[in-house]
Amino acid sequence: QKEVEQNSGPLSVPEGAIASLNCTYSDRGSQSFFWYRQYSGKSPELIMFIYSNGDKEDGRFTAQLNKASQYVSLLIRDSQPSDSATYLCAVNFGLTGGGNKLTFGTGTQLKVEL
Amino acid sequence: DAGVIQSPRHEVTEMGQEVTLRCKPISGHNSLFWYRQTMMRGLELLIYFNNNVPIDDSGMPEDRFSAKMPNASFSTLKIQPSEPRDSAVYFCASSLERGVPNEQFFGPGTRLTVL
């Protein structure tokens, strides 16, 4: 069974610090990786996606992918209280894993403290 | 442009009743996904459609659940009969697939409570 694992948290960081969110997945054949943010009572919204090994930066967010280690992470620089939310890692396991569907982790709750 | 539209936003029903959830995807999107989210199990994919055709329904929990997509702009998820353990938030999402998985846009969700 294809699985995506995340630490549920909460992860608490002070305002201005770097928040590091981690995700592991079970299938080496996985093709694409997504980070969604979900505020309490709201629907998930896409933060970043990454397909290739290495880093991908977008503003204060950096996604890191290491396919050999089956590991993907999200770094949030200069964390703000508005970043407090649950972050969901999602993986597409490719054609053998069901086509275009995504498998989501259970999410990591991030709290940015003043 | 309007995002994914779901109705109703909240539904409270009694055990044994039929529940129908509705979804209108973003115009032009060709993939539609139904998810269920609970505290215990997180966000689970129930079924997804590509070009109105069900592709993967392996996440549908049992025969009490059924989903249809009669056209590109409308889908329903039906639970009959409903049970208290079906209480959850149900999300519909849509995307435009061009051979690689693309961003899924989520609707606001339907919060279902079965008493």
Describe the structure.
The complex is a heterodimer of chains A (114) and B (115). Chain A is mainly β. The model of chain A has no long low-confidence stretch (mean pLDDT 91). In chain A, strand 7 and strand 8 form a beta hairpin. Chain A is built from no helices and eleven strands. Chain B has 115 residues and is mostly beta strands. Chain B has no helices and eleven strands. Chain B has strands at 5-7, 10-13, 19-24, 31-38, 42-50, 53-56, 65-71, 74-79, 88-95, 105-106, 110-114. In chain B, strands 2, 4, 5, 6, 9, 10 and 11 form a seven-stranded mixed beta sheet that branches. Chain B has a four-stranded antiparallel beta sheet with strand order 1-3-8-7, with no helix packed on it. The relative contact order of chain B is 0.33. At the A-B interface, strand 5 and strand 10 of A face strand 5 and strand 10 of B.
Radius of gyration of chain A: 14 Å
Structural class of chain A: mainly beta
Contiguous low-pLDDT stretches of chain B (5 residues minimum) are none
Number of strands of chain B: 11
Order of secondary-structure elements of chain A: EEEEEEEEEEE
User: How is the biggest beta sheet of chain A arranged?
Assistant: 6 strands, mixed
Arithmetic mean of pLDDT of chain A: 91
What are the defining features of this structure?
heterodimer, A: 114 residues, mainly beta, six-stranded mixed sheet, five-stranded antiparallel sheet, globular, B: 115 residues, seven-stranded mixed sheet, four-stranded antiparallel sheet
